[in-house]
């Protein structure tokens, strides 16, 4: 077994782990990022794409945003469709000009890998972390990684472990539930997440409200859109062939006089079984960040933005520890992040309730439909509800 000693061992080369690695490198703090997938896989796997102004500002300050600033589309309004009528909410105008940048997550991951690797940062691809120990703050932390391609194993000793390895984090095994205190919410339905070779309908996000299938169309590039379609819990990808998908999307996203453009569906997955939030994001020398600490629904596009913000706060706290021997910011990490995380969860649940109907009796459906109509009137009037939507959607 090979042995490595670094200041911080980072599990996972997603947006959270890579943003943290870059920030720590800039402070002269040694790290190793261990990623179970190959470099090619992480650089080509599509997921998020909606990046908030706040995230861009942080990345720009950290000199990590060149690719994003050069290539991302910007959008500051979104369209809602209800019963064939479309209306646009110019949320950037209502939120002091804060826009979204549309940039596929895999491109950001590719940029962060190139910058970190180019500056001498160490990333071990195709190695799965199989064990972490770090709950006892009086002992150094350790993690063991095994090659997914051969027999090689590496033991990494470090001061801290940053678990940025997504929703099935290995830290969930190392940090007892009694300490993490996770809270979970089961969604009553699922989402079919699709990528299709379809140019965006308009250069902004389109949300469709419907009594059975809430849906959305999001630009990814000039020729590719991501679609979400609400489906029932228990349904599988096999229940949804392309014809059925396009029929449902046509039903929700149709606007009078504008047929929905169809195209080749290149990816189909079912997502969104449940949200979880760990109420404690630190145990001894182990810190959780990104989806490892909180996995929330896609509505509102908050997950990747929260992941990068966790990295920003944890990176600054670790820098303070190494630069000034000050442990306080590390101890405050959970306390500082929890209100921001719950604010994002709150908004995402508000948006889900607006966009999606749940099965219920006729009276309950009529009641929720009136609530939806009231919200639509408020959004169209650009009054206080529209301003709340804009502030939360655009992010801080
Ligand atoms: C279809 C879809 C669309 C989305 N759209 C948006 C959006 O528009 N805006 C937004 O903000 N969010 C969005 N999200 C959520 C966003 O993608 C996640 O919140 C984000 O990826 C979290 O980043 P992360 O770095 O915490 O984790 P991840 O991106 O999941 O990265 C974790 C990494 O850890 C690796 N790993 C896991 N286990 C191990 C192990 N044991 N050893 C080594 N490596 C390991 C994984 O291979 C992975 O590369 C979307 C998600 C999906 C699925």
From TrEMBL:
GO molecular function list: FAD binding; oxidoreductase activity, acting on paired donors, with incorporation or reduction of molecular oxygen, NAD(P)H as one donor, and incorporation of one atom of oxygen
Highest taxon listed in the record's lineage: Bacteria
Domain named FAD-binding: residues: 6-347
InterPro entries, sorted: FAD-bd, FAD/NAD-bd_sf, RIFMO-like
Pfam families documented for this protein: FAD_binding_3
Keywords: FAD, Flavoprotein, Monooxygenase, Oxidoreductase
The name this protein goes by in its record: p-hydroxybenzoate 3-monooxygenase
Phylogenetic lineage: Bacteria, Bacillati, Actinomycetota, Actinomycetes, Micromonosporales
